[in-house]
Amino acid sequence: MEPKSIPQYLFRQLFENESSTYTYLLADLATKQALIIDPVVDTVERDAKLIQQLGLKLRYAVNTHVHADHITGSGELKKKFPDCKSVISNESGAKADIYVKDGEVIQIGETGKTPVILECRATPGHTNGCMSFVSHKNKSVFTGDALLIRGCGRTDFQQGSSDKLYTSIQTKLFTLPDDYRVYPAHDYTGQLCSSILEEKTHNPRLTKSRDEFIQIMANLKLSHPKQIDKALPANLMCGIQGDD
Ligand SMILES: N[C@@H](CCC(=O)N[C@@H](CSS)C(=O)NCC(=O)O)C(=O)O
């Protein structure tokens, strides 16, 4: 009989209702090292409890960009887990412990022992500093607000550019293998994930030409996020602020 393989990788998709944000918890179970993507301050207690229950060592709180609709949980998580470092793109304009550039990797777990590796892919357009994170081993990409399920991030503030976003999605995301799963930072329709093929085939904005995409984005007529005035200044500190 084949020996049972021991799971090496933990993946949890978590949801915050107020801003419809997905937070992702990833861990290397051999070392118990973990990272969290796009934590929300309102759900830090829940996430911290899960991390503690599972006996994980939180190493990184990663933000895909400076969010405008909720306050990041990075700062509160750093207080609860002193070894945790905040991570964001070097193009974000936010303060953080670690800045990542296009092409760099974030790793948890030991080299040579199937660690969890995220490749950083700069996907500007929703904001200048949007970064997507690819796990090739798990055939997944965490797209932040660049690519949403059957949609994409708005481009009408925070240095948004529809032209840049179209290029980012076509060249940095739609060039991934078709079977890679797409995990966005938000969904407003109750969907959990998609795939590169599904979005290439069915995304009503991205199946259009560049000019049509720019027209669609110019006519979204979305109201500003309710929490934008407090979220932006807080998130520019990205978990670096003191006890305020
Ligand atoms: N109603 C929400 C904000 C909804 C919104 O604007 N979402 C953003 C991502 S958060 S800045 C977006 O890009 N949406 C794209 C779309 O097509 O919906 C609130 O008040 O927080």
From TrEMBL:
Gene Ontology CC entries for this record: mitochondrion
Reaction equation(s) it catalyzes: S-sulfanylglutathione + O2 + H2O = sulfite + glutathione + 2 H(+)
Cofactor: Fe(2+)
Gene3D superfamilies noted in UniProt: Ribonuclease Z/Hydroxyacylglutathione hydrolase-like
Annotated compartments: Mitochondrion
Keyword annotations of the record: Acetylation, Dioxygenase, Iron, Metal-binding, Mitochondrion, Oxidoreductase, Transit peptide
Domain Metallo-beta-lactamase: 20-186
Family that this chain belongs to: Belongs to the metallo-beta-lactamase superfamily. Glyoxalase II family.
Subunit structure and binding partners: Homodimer. Monomer. Interacts with TST. May interact with RELA.
Protein's name according to its UniProt entry: Persulfide dioxygenase ETHE1, mitochondrial
Organism field: Rotaria socialis
Source species taxonomy: Eukaryota, Metazoa, Spiralia, Gnathifera, Rotifera
